[in-house]
UniProtKB/TrEMBL annotation, chain A:
Protein encoded by which gene: HBS1
Organism: Saitozyma podzolica
Quaternary state and interactors: Component of the Dom34-Hbs1 complex, also named Pelota-HBS1L complex, composed of dom34 and hbs1.
Protein name according to UniProt: Elongation factor 1 alpha-like protein
Keywords: Cytoplasm, GTP-binding, Hydrolase, Nucleotide-binding, Protein biosynthesis, Translation regulation
Coiled coil: none
Gene Ontology cellular component terms for the protein in this record: cytosol; Dom34-Hbs1 complex
Keyword Hydrolase (UniProt): yes
CDD domains per record: EF1_alpha, HBS1-like_II, HBS1_C_III
PANTHER family: TRANSLATION FACTOR
Low complexity bias locations: 142-152, 190-205, 219-256, 320-330, 378-410, 442-451
Family matches, as Pfam families: GTP-eEF1A_C (PF22594), GTP_EFTU (PF00009), HBS1_N (PF08938)
Cell location: Cytoplasm
Automatic annotation (TrEMBL), chain B:
InterPro entries noted in UniProt: eFR1_2_sf (IPR042226), eRF1_2 (IPR005141), eRF1_3 (IPR005142), eRF1_Pelota-like_N (IPR005140), Pelota/DOM34_N (IPR038069), Pelota_N (IPR058547), Ribosomal_eL30-like_sf (IPR029064), TF_pelota (IPR004405)
Biased composition (Acidic residues): 410-421
Chain ranges passing through the membrane: none
Stretches for region Disordered: 55-85, 386-421
Annotated GO biological process: cell division; meiotic cell cycle; nonfunctional rRNA decay; nuclear-transcribed mRNA catabolic process, no-go decay; nuclear-transcribed mRNA catabolic process, non-stop decay; ribosome disassembly; RNA surveillance; translation
Name recorded for this polypeptide: Protein DOM34 homolog
Record lineage: Eukaryota, Fungi, Dikarya, Basidiomycota, Agaricomycotina
Cellular localisation: Cytoplasm
Native organism: Saitozyma podzolica
Ranges annotated as biased composition (Basic and acidic residues): 386-397
The eRF1/Pelota-like N-terminal domain, residue ranges: 1-136
Biased composition (Low complexity): 63-75
Cellular compartments per GO CC: cytoplasm; Dom34-Hbs1 complex
Length: 947, 421
């Protein structure tokens, strides 16, 4: 579904109303937690060293407050880790153990962090707090707990200054995401003062947990200052310094007022002193914690009083930066004065002044419309900023909109740069690349980032924001989305082609995942299917159940070693004979690639199927049998290794990964590996694969050695290169001809059998162009037009498909008899021409009998194969120069221009034809292969169409 | 075909009376009759008479016509039923009561109806050989063949001189897909069922010498198993009894042209003991192999082969019967002479039937090819020919200037042929 539509459909009010509940644990959950906690603690009493409350709480949350389960898990975990493990370690379940797994996307997080680092801003929306926390994490492993820690505790302290805003659920109750935990852990590790930090964090945990949400109507400011009063965590010197320096540099800082400067200086100073220097800045900083309210109204008067309680807790430099007003000139670099400064003056001054200044700073309060607009657009901090400003001035309305901002931002879209910036709101704040996906929190309920309840309460604020920003939820979200989408027909986008192309390009750029088709080739019995079965199993694409079933089944027929291959060899014949007969198509994901896997048969009789698959591939994985004698058998004349290499190369595959399999049979001998590599390398170069596009890997498919990981000691001794999956993750993705007219050579026609996707179905790969649901396409040969009812990409329905993807199309308005394997689907306006005679430039391979005019051959084009004849030999050329015209014979290795005619079938009056285009028009539609008597004798490209 | 009578003089004049019996005979007749030949057969013609009063009357007469053939239509390769017939059109050369000289008539030559043929250009060795071949008792084996792949099958009958595709079967078989292969299995079952029915209908397996199942991969085994499983189920005794005649052979493609490969298979040639198609296939194969191993000993194309024949270098001549059907008697003669020349030197001349796949493949290679007994470089030979011609021209010029060159005629024998090509 289009994101625009999604945005349009959002019920703003509903979204906003939900907001408060989603921020953390619900009341109910909190209550459950409170009851469960003591029980769990009692049960775990005997464990030495004691398990931290945070850990307990975390696991309770994970197990939905099922005390028994949580305790069991904790015990197990504890035993495993041993006493040596530091408390923060064990609160982080290992991925495998995590009962409610949330994929943590660390790389992505970092990326965003860096993006956001430059935008510290005083208005303390969730977004901004997050950015702060991040910054800290990113900068110097300075303990962000400091920021957040103030939040939970803050609630417990009464706030003296009631405000118009409603404080949503206390931040303190917010569960901490694993990400945050991880970040924290790292930070702590880096810190010299980590121990104290950890202990303080854990000690504060119970406190925060007990906290109940602030009653509606409570002043937002109240939360702020009060929390500020709580002990801030000490920062390591290093961390503080770094953070301060970074902050000072940051562009955003330039907008921060002079006060901020001061504060940062102070922060640095504090850090350098390494002693706790409570400052006045703390209170305003504390306001950060409240996401939705107007925040920079830290009650200045109270701040100084309260700020001192725990010398160990000091503000993070960023908070200082943002909020401090005290001018303690230290070493911070000069910052340009900016109107942002004005913003923060009120912090230390009087409330009235503050409000006034806010208005000054932001100009007239935004109209509600503006707010909504921003809310829709927005993930940019600016929006939040301005809305918060409004809130400060305009009360409830402004506040709601402020709250809604992150929410609506949660659309599964990509971040947009905020263009509408409130006039005076210091537009630098806009933070592109921050998808704030609050709603995912709601949708995923406890599975969201918050599922580790207040392990480090000090972090919770930031934590919540993180969750709100939905960074770690993307996968969950995507999956859920997938589930939902799967059973829904996608409406057509009805975009014009150019728009769609633009959108596709943009999407691809943003997602960073590129589609690639991989064909697995090699001599028969090299272990192609087994390797792929193993890979799929290791990746979790092949379920344990299927695997066991296959194991049992294959053992039963006495082919135990085929267990993994059976994952792909599904046909009865294939299983009976232990040979792959037809292409098996499936898909899997690597971190940067979306791989369509085509497992090709290796037996020479099934090369037509292999060609049909190779024509759909971008990259080839050649599996070579490394066991004694077998490599040679496959590589010598009559073996498929050579032919496959030529085939895939001439079908447009540029990159090849050579997996030398079954090295376990030669006990991982490096000599054998080198011997094979030395034999193959020159050959592959001669076949047209450049050395840089050729990778060699030692593999053991049966045991899965070097497939996902290399854990074989013998192999590790001499090989430490990439594993198979690493290599596949880095293969180059060719440029796709999106702009060319649509061409889909059909590789399979079948009847859809599921309830959702029934009717005529065809599958194939888009050679070029784009396609969307609702398009009318023509099947060539024939004069039939069909409508695309559903598009399935990798077994999920999609609104559109683009060149390079393998798709299954469900068509309506066409009888299946008009579709055959080899039919080409194309736009009604630009059908592919039907050809009976054409000239082609061919490269002659290793062949037994030379080619002469009139040689009867089989012509292969995608999934088609037709009898044809080389009717004329026009010229032999060398390096682009014609060296001989009208030759009598073509010997091996020759490059020649020939005329190829299709042979009429005996006795039939129908002239045969094939949908074909010249290579100049469409590369993939212009490639042909020529075979004779079971061997591939030449490959060519169509130069000119004669008739 | 029955030879009713034969009156051929030494000089090639004379006639034969033949009675064609089936498709293949018609194919022979088609190859025998060339333009200008006189055909005499019984026919029915509607005769119109105009009386003196001007009223017209029409009636049918059964009479004998002798048109000189001007064209004949080939029996289609893929005929529904064995209703072989050949049409010969031309001007009547022998007047009778009903038909005036020079009137056009189209004769239908049908099975079991005698006709008399006399050749305008005289009976040459190739024509006589063909009559002998055609009238040989128990000539040739009939073999049934099924060439198939997944979803495609061609059911063929092979006789000595022709391959008839009796039926082509194409069903769409979905390929294997993730999550269930039931579609594929069901379609394959359906496909085998169709093939099985066609086999029962079209292959007289009781009289055939052998039935060949050829396919790439395992399809042939699956079909074989299916057929006999079905035969057992339906207790089809004759089919079960013919089991020993069924041979499974590997072919590289599911196309009909793989029959050539299939027929070359040793198990088949052994079974068929020198069947014509087997010999043809082997000859073609030899040629290709020679081309690969020694390009100078494998020549093709009428000009080049003619040169090789002139030099007496041809060991095996491969020639398609297509070339003898030339409408130009001179051209036909040239090929006949080439065949005779090769044979006279102890060489082998294989006349390929273009109704066989191997013949068609030869047709694609210009219809004529030769395996030489010793290597000859085409380019050198061509150069020699050019020089020879130049010399000849010079001499001719000299001869016309002076007297008439006597020895020029002697040389010209070979040259004249070259000129034609």
């Amino acid at each position: 579904m289009s994101r625009h539509r999604y945005v349009r459909n959002i019920d703003l009010d509903a979204e906003m109303a939900d907001e408060s509940e989603e921020e953390g644990m619900s009341q109910e959950e909190r209550a459950q937690m409170i009851t469960a906690m003591p029980i769990a603690r009692a049960l775990l009493k005997d464990v030495r060293p004691p398990i931290s409350d945070d850990a307990i709480a975390d696991s309770l949350w994970h197990y939905w407050f099922d005390v028994d389960k949580a305790v069991t898990w904790l015990r197990k975990d504890w035993e495993k880790k041993g006493a040596s493990a530091s408390p923060p370690d064990n609160i982080l379940p290992t991925p495998a153990q995590s009962p409610r797994p949330r994929p943590a996307k660390r790389p992505r997080l970092h990326a965003v962090q860096t993006e956001r680092e430059s935008s510290p801003q005083p208005p303390l929306s969730a977004l901004q707090r997050l950015s702060i926390a991040r910054k800290e994490a990113g900068v110097g492993r300075s303990p962000s707990p400091a920021i957040a820690s103030s939040a939970p505790t803050g609630d417990s302290i009464s706030s003296p200054t009631p405000r118009t805003g409603v404080v949503p659920t206390s931040e303190g109750t917010k569960p901490m995401s694993k990400l945050a935990l991880l970040a924290q852990k790292r930070k702590e590790a880096a810190q010299t003062a980590s121990i104290s930090a950890a202990s303080s964090a854990s000690s504060s945990a119970p406190l925060s947990r007990v906290v109940t949400p602030a009653p509606p109507g409570a002043s937002p400011a109240a939360a702020g200052p009060s929390s500020a009063a709580l002990p801030a965590k000490p920062l390591s010197k290093l961390a503080q310094k770094m953070a301060a320096a970074r902050a000072a540099k940051a562009e955003a800082v330039t907008q921060a007022g002079a006060t901020e400067q001061d504060q940062s200086r102070e922060g640095v100073g504090a850090a350098s002193n390494a002693d706790s220097t409570p400052t006045d800045n703390v209170p305003p900083e504390a306001t950060d914690v409240d996401p939705t309210t107007s925040l920079f109204i830290g009650t200045p008067e109270q701040a100084p009083d309260r700020a001192v309680p725990d010398p160990a807790h000091r503000p993070s430099p960023f908070f200082s930066l943002l909020t401090s007003t005290s001018a303690s000139p230290k070493s911070s670099p000069p910052v340009e004065p900016d109107s942002g400064r004005i913003l923060h003056l009120p912090f230390v001054r009087d409330q009235a002044g503050l409000e006034r200044r806010v208005r000054e700073a932001f100009g007239a309060a935004d109209s509600p419309d503006d707010i909504v607009l921003r809310a829709r657009q927005g993930r940019a901090g600016t929006a939040t900023l301005s809305t918060t400003a409004t809130t400060a001035g305009a009360g409830a309305k402004g506040k709601t909109s402020g709250g809604s901002t992150p929410k609506s931002a949660s659309l599964p879209g990509k971040p947009r740069v905020q263009t509408v910036v409130a006039g005076t709101s210091k537009s630098t704040v806009s933070q592109p690349g921050t998808p704030a996906k609050k709603h995912s929190v709601k949708a995923s309920a406890s599975s969201s980032g918050g599922s580790t309840p207040k392990v480090a309460p000090s972090l919770t604020g930031a934590q919540a924001d993180l969750a709100g920003l939905h960074l770690d939820e993307e996968v969950d979200e995507a999956e859920r989305e997938k589930e939902r989408e799967r059973y829904r027909e996608k409406p057509g986008l009805n975009m014009r082609q150019e728009e769609l192309v633009a959108k596709v390009k943009k999407d691809e750029e943003e997602s960073g995942k590129k589609n690639i088709s991989l064909i697995v080739v090699g001599h028969v019995d090299a272990g192609k299917s087994t390797l792929m079965g193993r890979l799929l199993y290791d990746l979790g694409e092949l379920s344990e159940r299927e695997k066991t079933a296959n194991e049992r089944g294959s053992k039963k027929v006495g082919k135990g070693s085929f267990a993994f291959a059976w994952g792909l060899d599904a046909l009865g014949d294939e299983r009976d004979r232990g040979v792959t007969i037809d292409i098996a198509t499936t898909h899997f994901n690597t971190p940067h690639r979306n791989v369509t896997l085509l497992d090709a048969p290796g037996h020479r009789d099934f090369i037509p199927a292999m060609i049909s698959g190779a024509a759909q591939a971008d990259v080839a994985l050649m599996v070579v049998d490394g066991s004694p004698g077998e490599f040679e058998a496959g590589f010598e004349r009559g073996g498929q290794t050579r032919e496959h290499a030529w085939l895939v190369r001439s079908l447009g595959v540029r990159e090849i990964v050579v997996g030398i399999n079954k090295l376990d049979l030669v006990s991982w001998s490096q000599d054998r590996y080198d011997e094979i590599v030395d034999a193959l390398r020159p050959f592959l170069v001669s076949a047209g694969f450049t050395a840089s596009k050729t990778t060699f890997l030692p593999l053991g498919a049966m045991e899965g050695v070097n497939v996902l990981v290399n854990e074989e000691a013998l192999l590790k001794e001499w090989y430490n290169g990439p594993t198979l999956i690493d290599t596949l993750d880095q293969v180059e993705v060719p440029e796709r001809p999106f702009e060319s007219p649509l061409r889909i050579p059909v590789s399979n026609v079948f009847k859809g059998q599921t309830a959702v996707a029934s009717g005529v179905a065809v599958s194939g790969r888009l050679c070029s162009g784009v396609l969307q649901v609702g398009d009318r396409i023509r099947a060539v040969p024939g004069d039939e037009v069909a409508q695309v009812r559903t598009i399935e990409v990798d077994e999920d329905s999609a609104p559109y498909a683009v060149a390079g993807q393998n798709v299954t199309l469900y068509l309506s308005g066409i009888d299946p008899i008009h579709l055959a394997i080899g039919t080409v689907l194309c736009p009604t306006s630009l059908p592919v021409p039907l050809v009976t005679q054409f000239t082609a430039q061919i490269l002659v391979f290793d062949l037994q009998c030379p080619i002469i005019a009139g040689t009867p051959v089989e012509l292969f084009h995608h999934s088609m194969n037709l009898p044809a004849t080389i009717s004329k030999l026009l010229a032999i050329s060398e390096r682009g120069q014609v060296v001989k015209k009208n030759p009598r014979v073509l010997q091996k290795g020759a490059t020649a221009t020939v005329e190829i005619s299709l042979r009429p079938t005996q006795g039939s009056t129908r002239t045969p034809s094939i949908p074909l285009e010249t290579a100049a028009e469409n590369k993939e539609m212009g490639r042909v292969l020529i075979r004779r008597g079971g061997e591939t004798i030449a490959a060519g490209v169509v130069m000119e169409i004669i008739s | 075909m029955k030879l009713v009578n034969k009156h051929i003089e030494k000089d090639g004049s004379g006639y034969v009376t033949l009675r064609p019996e089936d498709d293949e005979d018609m194919w022979h007749v088609y190859n025998l009759i060339s333009e200008g030949d006189e055909v005499r057969a019984l026919a029915i013609r509607r005769v119109q008479t105009v009386s003196s009063t001007g009223s017209s009357d029409s009636f049918r007469v059964r009479t004998t016509f002798s048109p000189a053939a001007s064209s004949s239509t080939t029996p289609g390769g893929e005929k529904k039923e064995p209703t072989a017939s050949l049409q010969v059109t031309g001007k009547v050369v022998n007047e009778n009561d009903y038909v005036r000289l020079g009137a056009f008539h189209t004769l239908d030559l049908e099975a079991n109806r005698d006709f008399r043929l006399s050749k305008s250009s005289g009976w040459d060795s190739v024509a006589i050989e063909r009559i002998e071949e055609a009238t040989k008792e128990g000539r040739g084996a009939e073999v049934g063949a099924i060439v198939l792949g997944e979803g495609t099958a061609a059911i063929c009958l092979l006789s000595e001189h022709m391959t008839t595709v009796r039926q082509r079967i194409e069903t769409s078989v979905p390929r294997k897909r993730k999550g269930g292969t039931s579609g594929h299995d069901k379609a394959m079952d359906n496909f085998f069922q169709t093939v099985y029915q066609a086999v029962l209908r079209l292959l007289p397996f009781q009289t055939l010498k052998a039935i060949v199942i050829a396919s790439p991969g395992f399809t042939k085994d699956s079909l074989y198993d299916y057929i006999f499983q079905q035969a057992t189920l339906t207790s089809n005794k004759p089919l079960l009894a013919s089991r020993s005649k069924w041979i499974k052979v590997h072919s590289n493609t599911p196309h009909v042209h793989s029959l050539v490969e299939a027929m070359r298979a040793p198990e088949i040639s052994k079974m068929l003991q020198g069947g014509k198609f087997a010999r043809e296939g082997q000859g073609l194969d030899r040629f290709h192999k020679m081309l690969a191993s020694d390009e100078l000993r494998a020549w093709y194309g009428p000009e080049h082969v003619a040169l090789a024949v002139d030099r007496g270098a041809v060991g095996t001549l491969l020639i398609s019967d297509d070339l003898f059907r030339s409408s130009d008697p001179v051209t036909r003669n040239r090929y006949v002479e080439m065949v005779e020349a090769v044979r006279s030197r102890g060489g082998e001349a294989l006349i390929f039937s273009s109704m066989h796949e191997s013949g068609q493949q030869l047709n694609l290679l210009t219809g004529i090819a030769a395996i030489l007994t010793y290597p000859l470089d085409v380019e050198i030979v061509e150069m020699e020919e050019r020089e020879e011609k130049e010399r000849l021209e010079r001499e001719k010029a000299g001869a016309t200037a002076g007297e008439g060159g006597a020895d020029g005629g002697g040389e010209g024998e070979g040259e004249g042929e070259g000129g034609f090509l």
